[in-house]
Design a protein that fits this description.
Low-confidence stretches: none
CATH architecture: 3-Layer(aba) Sandwich
Number of strands: 10
Distance between the termini: 37 Å
Radius of gyration: 17 Å
CATH class: Alpha Beta
CATH superfamily: Alpha/Beta hydrolase fold, catalytic domain
Helix content: 25-40%
Largest sheet: 8 strands, mixed
Number of domains: 1
Structural class: alpha/beta
Amino acid sequence: MDEAHPAPQILTRDDGATIAYHQTAGKHPGVVFLTGFKSDMTGGKAMELEAFCRERGQAFLRFDYFGHGQSSGEFEDGTIGRWADDAVFAIDGLTEGPQILVGSSMGGWIMLLAALARPDRIAGLVGIAAAPDFTEDLIPAALDDGQKRALERDGVVDIPNCYDDLEPYRIRKRFLDEGRDHLLLRGEIAINCPVRLIHGREDEDVPWETSHRLMERLASADVEVQLVKAGDHRLSEPHDLTRLRRTLGGLLDGLG
């Protein structure tokens, strides 16, 4: 690794699994970035927010879940519960004081689970195309009859990866079954901190209505949804990153 791409630091869980992370020291509230499904901490939004927090002197943490990026484990062995536990473990072990969680896609689900697990530590949330309950509401609906039969018969099915035709997502039935233990949109979500949700109207992976459902379920009265007319799922274009900076900056400024 060169100076521009330093090796990550390593946090070891009690079971010996390792979480790779990069951390920037700074003032509170700190910011923790939570990546999406099969994504990692080197993506454009994570790096943009790291630079933004460094400019502001804000503490910042980005890390890879189990089976993602430079952390240990196989992706196919991961579950929503395991990745949420990684997030809580990283928050407990690597941060101090109040934190703002920024979750992209699946990371938006993970941030909600982490906020529920550590309500006294979480000062605010920013969701980018947040995808709570996607194992129940989105993946099954995307499977054709043949894939559903294969899932029941084999316990596993491959579905196309819209970002990489060469590497489909391998979905295990137990992954979907375990996801049911963490569903949130079926009742009130007991989170009372400020929440900002950004969602593209042209998102073909997670319907923008998901953010509206989430807003209605959150107990907090301080919830804002920004709909981006031409926005896709990634929301990673330069103007999207500018919007993300503005949204996070406004939340930080409001928290003092």
